[in-house]
Every structure is written in C-alpha cells, then in structure tokens.
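idk why but the lab printer keeps eating my pages so im just putting this in chat instead. protein + adenosine-5'-diphosphate:
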Amino acid sequence: MMIKPNTYPKFPRDCHSLLSKYLTPEVFASLQHKTTKNGFSLQQVINSGVENPDSGVGVYAGDEDSYRVFAELFDPIIAEYHGFASSDSHVSNLNADDLDASNPDPDGLYIISTRIRVGRNLAGYPLGPAISSDQRNEIAQRVSQLLSNLDDSLRGNYYPLSGMDEQVRKRLVADHFLFKAGDRFMQAAGMNRDWPEGRGIYHNGDKTFLVWINEEDQLRIISMQTGGDIKQVFTRLSNALGEIGSKLEFMSNQHLGYISSCPTNLGTAMRASVHIKLPRLAKNMDSLKSITDRHELQIRGIHGEHSDSQDAVFDISNRRRLGITEVDCVRGLYEGIVALIAAERAQ
Ligand code: ADP
Ligand code: CIR
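predcted complex ->
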C-alpha cells in the first residue's frame, strides 16, 4: 500500500511505532512539502512505518540532510530511542585499551559466539533509500578494491551477491555470516531496489572479519568469533576500522556521529551482541526481560532482527548507540551478560 501524497496517514489503534507517536498532524503539516538536497521527501521517510504498522520505529533517512530537514520528526524519535537530546553531541572512543571486559563465560557454558558490527556510509553519497544504481555500483567497486589491499589477519576476498552460487549463499546466511534480502521494512524504505546488484560480502579466511557492502548501510564492518572473548572481538574491529577509516571518508557529524539510514543506528552505529544459551531464563521471560531492560539491552532471535529465538538461544545486544562511546556500548553488553549468566545460574 502506497500512502497518498500529502494525506496524513492513518495508523491502526494497535500501532505503537515511534513514527505514529511523533508524526502528529501538526508535524505532518509542517514537513509535508519539504525535500532534502537529494529530493528525499517526508513520504519516503515515513513509508516503511506506514506500510508496516508493527514497526518499532518506522522511519528512514535518505541522506544526511534528512536529519536536518525532517528534524521535527527525527529529533523526538532519536531522543526516545537513544536518550539523546537535540542539544547533545556525540563522542567516539574505539580505543580497545579503554575496554575493561574480560570473557564473561570463560568455561564456554553459555556464550556461543560474539559479534560486533558498525555501520558506515560514505561522505558525498545519498544513503540506501535514495542511492542510484550507478552510485551503489561505484561504492561496491571502491570499497572492494580498498579491502583487497588489507593485510595479515584481515586479508580476504570479496564475493558479489550477483552470480553467487545459491547453496553457498544459503550456507553463509544460515551460519550468520551473510545478510538476507531486505525484509518488508527495508523493502518499503526503498532499500531493496536493484537487488542483488551492487551488494556483496568480503571476509577473511576464518570469517572473523567481514564487511557487508550495500545492505542497509553502505558498509557493515563486522568482527565475530565463537565464544565470549568480547575484548578480542572489539580489538579486531577497532584495528580494522583504523585501516579502513584512514582510506575512506565516512559520513559523520559532531551531533549525530556516524550517519546511518535507520535512526537507531546513529552515533557509534555499533551493535555488539552475543548468541547466548539461557535455558532456565527462557522459561521465565519476565525475569530475562527485566535484566535486559535494566542494562539497556535488546533481545533478538538467532537469525537476525525480526527473527525468533530457538532452543533458548538469544541474540542479546546493546540497544543505545548514540551519545555513548563504542567502549561504553561494549562495556554495557559485558555488564548485562555477567548479570544474565548470574541469573541463569541462580534459577
Ligand atoms: P545487524 O547485526 O546488522 O543489526 P541482524 O540483527 O539481522 O543485523 O543480524 C545479522 C546476522 O548476524 C544474523 O544472521 C544474526 O544471526 C547474526 N548475528 C548477530 N549476532 C551474532 C552473534 N553474536 N553470533 C553469531 N551471529 C550473530
Ligand atoms: C522498525 O521500525 O521496526 C524497523 N524499521 C527496524 C528498526 C531498527 N531496529 C531496532 O530496533 N534497532
């Protein structure tokens, strides 16, 4: 269902998205005729949340300018999701020496794997919902070329999605290394256009360092491994970001940090997660949720966002990404995981 231009959308009664909360008729009237430097409109910003009333958030930016032009809508959404006021500024800290986080599960009883990803977009291009096919292909070319020069433990190969063997693709997705085709939320945001052209994955030999190209963000830079050595995963990511960031200019500003198409990813653009098996807590979800809420953690299923948990394995990650440093994101995950393991033991 496409919304009619310039008509205030109807949200169903059971819609709880941040879009439905903050797109008042007054905000709609004030923004409905505005467009960004790339011609991105309010209709495009809100389409995902209008078509998908079960969205948690429901808005996407087409470019950095979207956050300025449509600030009346984005700012309260950002404030509620990240606890970050429009007068605040964002500070980054990727220094692994500052991270105090040992392995919370040294005996390997609970944590199956640890993954930390950041999103990055390139300065000077529109974001996924507004990018052209030529621009997307140009980015894939530039980034894969740059990655092919990485050395040592980051050395690897780039595998374009177009032409990838279907069995290989399915295996990579099932093993949590590769993204799936965008879901209905991304589809309605315009992020799936020209799929799979211009998309691909780079990874090193043992798949502990991976880069997704042109999925929801132009780059998703990922460090992951089995077990719970959070600090080792963070250190690898921090080193890789140093290498890549010295050769590419990322889209960022002082207020919002790294710019992403989804406002939940602004700032650090970091999601640090563990896949963790908690069979006792799984039978007492209220208790599990009270711990994750207290530590500002999000629970996802084991096949990514909007999937279900299986066999009492949960994907637990930091929820806030803006107004806290990268070190804070990971330390927050560590503290929450320590609390979850203690609660699982005590059940
Ligand atoms: P993103 O992490 O980019 O926000 P998703 O939530 O869709 O996106 O997750 C992407 C993939 O990463 C999924 O296959 C998911 O299962 C996998 N993943 C996330 N965290 C972990 C982890 N700690 N260990 C292994 N795989 C993980
Ligand atoms: C939604 O609004 O539910 C989707 N557009 C996804 C939002 C990002 N997810 C999240 O909570 N970090």
